[in-house]
């Protein structure tokens, strides 16, 4: 049984039809369809030159939310409406009824997402008004929508989540409750509401300071095995609380499948974030609309989350300290690159030292927090594609998607 499912028949439009619908359709998805039709779906070596290369051509408008996309030819668009039947706050529930069931290649049209704490966060609400709401959800803040079940997905497979569109609502906030962030004792509890312009390109922070929007989902994960709920504060081999600000429209996120159907959950809609997330929050918001296309790669070699942007491959490390998170990230990335390319591990170590960029995803300090589980500290590594020959780029893409 699935819920809130509708089919958007525009998914069956041919690429030539889309050419006539106006410039607003020329986002990552539309361009990608033309590329894939020309090269053939088997040419997944074009992961660097296909979807990601197409995404490189997105306009600033698409980067800030994108125009309304359609699925690649052959897939359908399946509507998913957030409700208390399809949202869990602060955790993935292993026994939740599927929100939708789709086929590989289909696109899920999330007809809105919720703000934190079950959509109870409202514009202008004072800090004292918000605290009882925050304490109401001890498992965490994220309003996770799902699960999306993918037909044919089995443990050992890989789900590729192509982030096609994220358009924010017209407001968000940044805050630091007591005892969180990199400076938990330096300031009083902090809360600032931000208005977002009608084009959804900028948010006004303080007079004279406009923040460019770069929407992303902080949380994206497949359901781990077992019958225990999984806190949305965590991250692991299944993905989860990646909280990586560069994973906007035009990127792919790769998640290992650990249960039949994959059961993908997502939440934590952000308007923009600095890398490091130092006061513990981004521009926390919700989306008017989000679209993700789900592809399935059978029996993949990957055993942890990875991501691809138009210019980079990205790996992740999570631990209780930034030191340990960096080491975990580096070891994962060395193993992946060596297996994909045949380059000796010690040479991969050197490549990361001279060309990799290791960045703080989130500092995640929480002393005295109301949440039952604390987020790990996160590091992500950005490895530029441009350093590799075309042949090695193809081998890396093939290996990752094999």
UniProtKB/TrEMBL annotation:
<feature type="region of interest" description="Disordered">
    <location>
        <begin position="1"/>
        <end position="25"/>
    </location>
</feature>
<dbReference type="InterPro" id="IPR004304">
    <property type="entry name" value="FmdA_AmdA"/>
</dbReference>
<protein>
    <submittedName>
        <fullName>Acetamidase</fullName>
    </submittedName>
</protein>
<dbReference type="Pfam" id="PF03069">
    <property type="entry name" value="FmdA_AmdA"/>
</dbReference>
<dbReference type="InterPro" id="IPR006311">
    <property type="entry name" value="TAT_signal"/>
</dbReference>
<dbReference type="GO" id="GO:0016811">
    <property type="term" value="F:hydrolase activity, acting on carbon-nitrogen (but not peptide) bonds, in linear amides"/>
</dbReference>
């Amino acid at each position: 049984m699935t819920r809130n499912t509708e089919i958007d028949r525009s998914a069956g439009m041919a690429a030539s039809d889309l050419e006539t619908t106006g410039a607003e359709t020329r986002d990552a998805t539309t361009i990608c369809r033309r590329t894939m039709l020309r090269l053939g779906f088997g040419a997944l070596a074009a992961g660097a030159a296909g979807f990601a290369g197409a995404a490189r051509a997105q306009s600033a408008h698409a980067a800030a939310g994108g125009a309304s996309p359609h699925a690649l030819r052959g897939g359908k668009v399946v509507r998913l409406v957030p409700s208390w039947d399809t949202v869990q706050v602060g955790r993935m529930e292993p026994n939740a009824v599927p929100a939708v069931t789709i086929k590989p290649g289909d696109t899920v049209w999330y007809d809105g997402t919720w703000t934190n704490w079950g959509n109870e966060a409202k514009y202008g609400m004072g800090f004292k008004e918000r605290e009882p709401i925050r304490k109401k959800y001890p498992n965490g803040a994220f309003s996770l929508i799902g699960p999306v079940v993918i037909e044919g997905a089995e443990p050992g497979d890989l789900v590729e989540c192509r982030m096609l569109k994220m358009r924010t609502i017209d407001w968000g906030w940044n805050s630091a409750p007591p005892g969180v962030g990199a400076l938990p004792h330096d300031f009083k509890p902090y809360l600032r509401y931000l208005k977002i312009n009608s084009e959804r390109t900028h948010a006004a922070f303080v007079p004279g300071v406009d923040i460019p929007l770069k929407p992303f989902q902080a949380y994206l994960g497949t359901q781990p095995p077992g019958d225990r709920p999984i806190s949305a504060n965590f991250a692991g081999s299944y993905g989860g609380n990646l909280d990586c600000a560069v994973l906007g429209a035009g990127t792919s996120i790769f998640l290992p499948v650990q249960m039949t159907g994959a059961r993908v959950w997502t939440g934590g809609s952000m308007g923009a974030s600095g890398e490091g997330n130092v006061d513990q929050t981004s521009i926390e918001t919700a989306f008017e609309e989000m679209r993700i296309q789900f592809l399935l790669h059978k029996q993949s070699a990957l055993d942890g989350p990875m991501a691809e942007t138009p210019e980079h491959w990205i790996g992740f490390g999570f631990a209780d300290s930034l030191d340990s998170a960096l080491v975990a990230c580096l070891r994962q990335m060395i193993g992946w690159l060596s297996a994909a390319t045949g380059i000796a591990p010690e040479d991969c170590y050197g490549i990361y030292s001279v060309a990799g960029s290791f960045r703080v995803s989130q500092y995640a300090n929480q002393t005295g927090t109301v949440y039952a589980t604390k987020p790990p500290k996160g590091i992500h590594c950005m490895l530029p594609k441009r350093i590799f020959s075309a042949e090695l780029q193809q081998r890396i893409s093939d290996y990752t998607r094999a």
